[in-house]
Write a structure and sequence with these properties.
about 90 residues, flat
């Protein structure tokens, strides 16, 4: 009997491209709303990710979907999947 293949589930995030200055690399900001643990007030927290974009499809201002992947460099751990909107 053969062993069944394990399906790898990768994290997907949506964000906005804020920098496209280097070839094949985009900086994407992912913002999320969190509630304060004690007081309950909601506020926005953002995180910047260096994303590998092999064909340079995305430009500044594009809304994109990124996926966790193997390390491409010291800072790049995500890759570009597709554009969602502009």
């Amino acid at each position: 009997m053969s062993t069944p293949k394990v399906q790898l589930v990768r994290r997907h995030l949506e964000g906005t491209v804020v920098s496209a200055k280097t070839p094949k690399t985009r900086i994407v900001v992912v913002a999320r709303i969190v509630a304060h643990q004690k007081y309950g007030k909601r506020y926005e927290v953002s995180q910047r990710y260096a994303v590998h974009d092999e064909t340079n499809q995305s430009q500044v201002g594009d809304h994109v979907v990124i996926e966790a992947s193997r390390p491409y460099s010291r800072t790049k751990r995500w890759r570009f999947l597709r554009k969602v909107g502009a």
